[in-house]
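User: I'm preparing a small set of examples for a lab meeting where we compare how different chains pack in three dimensions. I only have the primary sequence for this one, and I'd like the structure in C-alpha cell form so I can line it up with the others. Please keep the answer compact; I'll paste it straight into my notes.
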Amino acid sequence: MVRSVAVIKKKIKNPLIKRIPRELLGDWKKYLVVALFLILTIGFVSSMYVANESMLIAADEGVTKYKLEDGHFELNKKADETLLTAIGTGTKADVKQYYLDKAKKELDEKFDDEFEKEFTDKFNAEFDDKFKDKFDTEFQAKFDEQFDAMVKQQFDANFGDQFDTMFAAQVKQTLLAQGLDEASADAMLESAVAQAKQDGTYQSAYDTAYESAYDEAYAATKQENYQSAYDEAYEEAFQPAYDEAYDTAYQEAYDEAYPKAYDEAWDKIVDEVNEKYADAEEKYELNDPDFQTVPVKVYENFFRNEEEDYNNDGEVDGTIRVYAQNDDVDLACLLEGNFPEKSDEIAIDRMHADNIGVKVGDTISVSGQQFKVVGLIAYVNYATLHEKATDLMFDAIKFDVAMVTPEVFDNLQKSVHYSYAWNYEHEPADEVEQKKLSDDFMKALLTQVVCDDKEIEDYLPRYANPAINFATEDMGSDKAMGGVLLDILIVIIAFIFAVTISNTIVKEASTIGTLRASGYTRGELVRHYISMPVIVTLLAAIIGNILGYTVFKNVVVGMYYNSYSLPHTRRYGIRMRFSRQPLFRLH
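Assistant: Understood. Below is the C-alpha cell output for the 587-residue chain.
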C-alpha cells in the first residue's frame, strides 16, 4: 500500500514540471517584458560597474605611467637652481633672519645718505644761527680793539709833528707877547721850546692837547670810516672763520650723532620685522610644532595662455594653454595622430577638438600664428578642462590645452607662467596624509620663496585640483549610484515577482486546492510557483551581464571618454577607445 502511494505521488509530480513550459508559452508576453526590463537594468548596472572600475584603474595607472604631479605652484619670477634645490629639500628657511638681513642691507645702503642729508640740514640751521651770534660778538670786540689801535697809530704818527709845530707857534707868540721882535723871538724859540720840554710844560701841554685832539680825531674817523672798515673786515674774516668752525663742529657732531641715529633706526626696523614676522607666523603657522620636512622633486612646467581661433575667422574663440613637450612630469597620452615635431605643428586636447569639430590635419590660429593640428592628446593633469581651480565647471569649448615643441614655445607671444610641478619623494598613503604633506610643503615653500625675494602666484596640490579629480570623483559617484541602482533593482525584482506570483496564485487557487488534495506539500507548490520568476531572473541576469561586459560597457566607456579627456585603457581583454563622434557634447 505504501509503495503504491509513493508511485502515485511520483507520477503526480511530473505534471508540475511539465506545466512550466506551458506557463511560459501562455504568459510569454508578460515574462518577455519582465525579462527585457531585467536584462536592460542588469546590463546597465553591470556595465557601470565594469566600465567604472576599468576607468578608475586606468586613472590610477595613469598617475605613474604619465607622471602625474602631486601639485604645482606658480612664481612671479623664474626660479634659479639654488632656489629649486632649496625647495626640493622641503625644509623651512629662516624667514625672520632673512627679513633682518634684508633690512640690514637696505639700511646700510641708504642710511648714510639719508642721515647725512637730514643731519646736515638740521646742523646747518642750528650752526648758522649760533655761529653768527658768536662770531658777531667776538668780531665786534676784536674789530673795535683793532680799529682803536689803527686810529691811535695813525693819530700818533701825525700828532707829534703837528703838536710840535703848534707848540712852537704858541711859544713864539708868548715871546712876542713879552716884547721881543720877530727875529729875537725866532732866535730864542728853540731854546724856549727846549726849556719847556725840560721843565714839563711841553709834556703837560702835549697830554692836554693829545687827549682832546685824539678824541676829536677818533670821533671823526669813526664817523667817516668805521662802518666801511667794519664791513670790509667782517666780510673778509667771516667765511674763513665759518669754514674752519663748521668743519670742526660738523665732524664732532656727526661722529656723536651717527651711531645713536643708526641704533635708533635699527631698533625701529627690528620692531617692524618682529611684527611682520609675527603676522606671517600666525597666518601661515610657520612655527607649527607638528611640521615635518617634505622632500620633493620639482620640475619646470611652464605654460603660456594664448588666444585660440580654431575656425580662422579672425575672432578669438577662447584661451589655449600651451605647454612645451617634456618627458619629466604631467605627460600627455597621444590618442590620435602624432606629437608635434615642426615649428608649425601643434597637438590639442581631444575632447576640445571633438566639441569644436577640429580634426587631425586641420589648421588653427594661436595668437595670430597658424598651426597644423597633428595630434589629439589627453594631458594627465587635465582630465577635465578647468582653466582655474575656482571654476565650478570645466569648459571644453572656450578653453584648450596644447603641446608644441620647446623651440616654438620660446617664440610664442604671451608672457610665460612660471609654473613648477612637484612630486613627493615618499608617496602619501591616502588623501589625509596627502593634505598633511601639502600643508607642510606649502609652509616650507613659502619661506624659501620669500627668502629668495619672489612671490607665489598660485599653489594647488593634487587633491584640490578639479582638473585632475573632477572626472575620477564623478566616476566614483557613478559607482555609488550603481550600488543604489542595484539596491533599487533588487527591490523592483522582488516587487514584480511578488505581484506576478500573487496574481498567479489567485488565478490558480482552485488548481492549487486540487493539487493539495492530491497530496502535494506546501513546499512543493511554493517551489513550483517561484520557479518561473527564478528562471526568468537567471536568464535575464546571464544575458544582462553578458551585454554589460560587452556592448553596454563600451557605451558607458564612450560616455566617459566623450565627457572627459582620458587616456586609453585596456581592461578585460578589450581595448577601450573613444568614438570620434561623441555620444553627446558639452555645450
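A couple of notes for your slides: Residues 292 and 419 are 24 Å apart (CA to CA). Residues 1-14, 571-587 have pLDDT under 50 and may be disordered.

User: Perfect, thanks.
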